[in-house]
Specification:
The chain is of the alpha/beta class. It has 5 domains: about 10-40; about 45-280 and about 425-460, Rossmann fold, CATH 3.40.50; about 290-415, Pre-protein croslinking domain of SecA (Alpha-Beta Complex); about 470-610, P-loop containing nucleotide triphosphate hydrolases (Rossmann fold); about 640-690. It starts with 7 loop residues before the first helix and ends with a helix.
Length: about 700
């Protein structure tokens, strides 16, 4: 009775029922039934808050080693109350059939502007429908994350550790927004993930007549864009926007909402770090075949640079020599075209040829893909600085890609021109509101970068279960040879304990070198570096077995759970070895976070070679310090310094990109108007009459 009596009115009702029961006016079954009707907003909530929510909320608002950026107190109080109300509604409606829940949802959807109470009802209906139809019961962290995002009046990103069910959070959030009659774009880091998530979520959305689709095909169908919830990658959406502008043909539905000041309603960005931090200022470029080709210049310029790279290559005299060289190339076949080449363009080509020859390295900056045969080899770019990911559909500009192709005896691809491009900062500005979910957001500097570029707030979400992973201190050795030897010894040590191992390397080349060393020592392993012969899913399927050893680049398999065998869990879980010091907190957290997911045991450590840090070694010789502690502090300081520099660079570049896009919009608006005039028969007749009169 004390639990029920949380407010005076409930207490009075409870005592009235007790009097009726005492006076034999109610049977025991009737008394319990009446008492239970009072419980939905009290007893159930109290027990849940006591047993589950209280502990979770405590971890939401304090730095426990994994929650560094807390949800503000005002929002925390709000979502605590909201969660209690949702649980009350779930208890109240727990006996309803799915058809009755659908009917309730339909009535709410008819409201043009759903209120605060309606949104909580939508969430409760979503909870119950998932449980009835799919036997999925959302846990408190998932619900609180959605409430935390919605509590912000502006755009917001939540850091949700991998393994906490981000896909379900995205599904519930998209459902809540779509039920408010808003269009929702769910932006994934890859086409495969977008198509997979859409296919899975569609089964839930269809229950409530919410249409969903994806635009991941090379030529998406027009009807796909009409869906309430649309899935795709950032570039899928960006290319669609650019095609609209370039071909004067609407692709996305035209909104007539008076309060919609921006192009789109909502975007939910899954794994936001892949889309905005690693590639914050990358542009999607729509290419067209060039009408005037200068593809003939690449081979002679490459040969010229190879022969003259020590002779002041970028001086004005060299430019004149290059022009003479080009005039004589192929028995003067192209001499008449040389005068069309501007000095600025020639300088760019010289720099690109030099970079292709002496700066870019195979299996570090790019890979040569010969999977389709020697006659169909391709140069694929590797993002060596950020993710280690291979960009299969990207090409370097200013002839750089063509020069690398020539370096490897590959015929350069046909030239294209770029009539229009669209960067992430300009694209995301088209949305009224952005919501993001990501496994790792990084340091305060990296979050500040996001806030400045995209005007988003951030907060960390605690894990449903406490993190048991042990992160060991950094280990520094003096030489590269000793570095490899130490890693081999550590691998052998863990092999004996039969714990699974994931060894992360900074580049494809580094992973190949380590693989060769392991082969020499007869240590069995599997390679996951994006150029391996085996399928990624086949490698990851066995990576969690006892004693399994997987050598990978930093990006390979990122965001994918390595499912551990029960014996592996008993022996201490996955151990992650980083063979390099990551260039950001975010990359380090991502790497270490592959172990100890979902409350499992696990561990991680970093090994570095001082041979690659000569300035640090020299400085250490001049002062007396505690070696390993000083090294870690120094590297972290350098990391923060670099992050701060990149922050200002990216913010400045984002502003330039946005300004350039406004000019592009003005140009294409004028071009669209001009095109409409050209297709207007009356205007054409007037022009024809005018010309006749003048003639």
């Amino acid at each position: 009775m004390h639990i029920l009596a949380e407010d005076l009115l409930t207490a009075e009702h409870a005592f009235e029922l007790l009097d009726c029961y005492s006076n034999c006016q109610l049977s025991p079954d009737q008394f319990l039934e009446k008492l239970e009707q009072l419980a939905p907003t009290t007893h159930t909530n109290a027990s849940i808050l006591e047993k589950d929510i209280k502990n979770v909320l405590e971890r939401f608002k304090k730095d426990d080693g994994h929650v560094h950026f807390c949800l503000p107190d005002v929002h925390l109080k709000t979502i605590t109350k909201q969660f209690s109300l949702i649980q009350g509604l779930c208890h109240k409606w727990k006996h309803l059939q799915l058809e009755e829940l659908i009917s309730l949802a339909h009535k709410i959807r008819l409201h043009l502007q759903p209120n605060y109470s309606d949104i909580l009802k939508i969430m409760a209906i979503g909870h119950l429908a998932l449980k009835i139809k799919f036997q999925i019961e959302l846990h408190s962290i998932q619900t609180l994350t959605v409430l935390g995002l919605l509590a912000h009046k502006t755009s917001c990103i939540a850091q949700v550790k991998t393994g906490e069910g981000k896909s379900l959070i995205v599904t519930l959030l998209a459902f809540v927004l779509a039920m408010q009659n808003k269009s929702v774009h769910v932006i994934s880091s890859s086409k495969n993930l977008a198509m997979r998530d859409q296919l899975q979520a569609a089964k839930f959305f269809n229950i409530f007549a919410i249409s969903s689709s994806h635009i991941c095909k090379n030529e998406p169908e027009a009807n796909s864009f009409k869906a309430n919830i649309l899935y795709g990658t950032a570039t899928d959406f960006e290319f669609a926007v650019m095609r609209e502008m370039l071909y004067f043909k609407p692709i996305f539905p035209q909104h007539s909402e008076p309060n919609l000041f921006k192009r789109f309603n909502y975007a939910i960005i899954d794994e936001l770090d892949n889309l905005t931090i690693d590639t914050a200022t990358n542009s999607a470029r729509l290419g067209h075949a060039a009408e005037i080709h200068f593809s003939w210049v690449y081979k002679p310029i490459f040969a010229f640079v190879k022969a003259n790279y020590t002779k002041g290559l970028f001086k004005d005299e060299s430019l004149q020599q290059l022009k003479e060289f080009l005039k004589e190339y192929s028995n003067g076949k192209f001499s008449s075209q040389v005068h069309q080449l501007a000095n600025r363009q020639l300088k760019n080509w010289l720099k690109s040829a030099f970079k292709a020859l002496f700066v870019l390295q195979e299996n570090i900056d790019y890979v040569v893909d010969a999977k389709s045969g020697e006659d169909k080899k391709k140069i694929l770019i590797v993002d060596a600085v950020n993710t280690g990911r291979i960009h299969k559909h990207s090409r370097w500009s200013h002839g750089l890609h063509e020069f690398v192709e020539i370096k490897h005896s590959i015929s350069p691809a046909k030239e294209t021109i770029t009539p229009i491009s669209l960067s992430h900062p300009a694209f995301y500005e088209m949305y009224n509101c952005l919501y993001g979910l990501t496994g790792t957001l990084g340091s305060q500097i990296e979050r500040e970068t996001l806030r400045k570029i995209y005007q988003v707030e951030t907060f960390d979400v605690p894990t449903q279960k406490p993190v048991l992973r042990k992160d060991f201190p950094l280990v520094a050795v003096n030489t590269n040879e000793l570095h490899l030897q130490t890693i081999i010894e550590k691998i052998q040590q863990f092999k004996q304990t039969k714990r699974p191992l994931l060894v992360l390397c900074p580049t494809i080349h580094a992973s190949e070198v380590l693989g060769e060393m392991l082969a020499k020592n007869n240590i069995s392993h599997r390679m996951l570096n994006e150029i391996q012969a085996e399928k990624e899913e086949d490698i990851l399927a066995v990576a969690g077995l006892p004693g399994a050893l997987t050598i990978a680049t930093n990006n390979a398999g990122r965001g994918t759970d390595i499912r551990l065998d029960p014996e592996s869990l008993e022996r201490g879980g996955l151990h992650v070895i980083l063979t390099f010091y990551p260039n950001s907190d975010r990359v380090e957290y991502q790497a270490r976070g592959r172990a100890g997911r979902q409350g499992q045991q696990g561990s991680s450590e970093i090994f570095i070679s001082l041979e690659n840090l000569p300035h640090l070694v020299k400085y250490m010789q001049e002062i007396e310090v505690r070696r390993d502690e000083f090294i870690e502090h120094y590297l972290h300081y350098q990391r923060m310094r670099e992050a701060n520099f990149l922050k200002h660079q990216q913010i400045f570049q984002a502003e330039i990109e946005r300004y350039c896009y406004t000019l592009v919009q003005k140009f294409f608006t004028f071009l669209h108007t001009f095109n409409a005039l050209c297709n207007n028969e009356r205007i054409l007749e007037k022009w024809a009459d005018t010309l006749k009169i003048k003639k």
